[in-house]
Amino acid sequence: MDLDTALAFALTRQRGVLATIRSDGRPQLSNIMFVPVDGDFWISVTASRAKTRNLRRDPRCVLHVPGDDFWTFVALDGIATLSDVTKDEHDAVAELLVEYYRRGSGEHPDWDEFRSTMVHEGRLVAKFHATSAYGILQRS
Hints:
This protein has 140 residues and is of the alpha+beta class.
């Protein structure tokens, strides 16, 4: 599948499954939400989760983006770059998380609460960059 075609499809979605590589080589799958930003897809993750540990060790991953029926999907092979963990409600990572939320959900009813929660949860941004793709967009 052509990467541009797959990316155009993924731009119409916000939910997917991120496959990362465990230390023993087996895949680890996580249901995630993503937002497109400057040709990449941003994913909000927490520092303590398996997917984050896996990406720190090996940034190769796959973003599976399902369609409206079982047979329609794209799988984007790529690399994820992790931001620092947000440590302060007004640090650069907190600003990235605000941008992530705004692009995916719009305005938050209480940005102070949002920022505090991001710090408390140890959140960061995984920036996924697709390098190739496969999948099925229409059945013949």
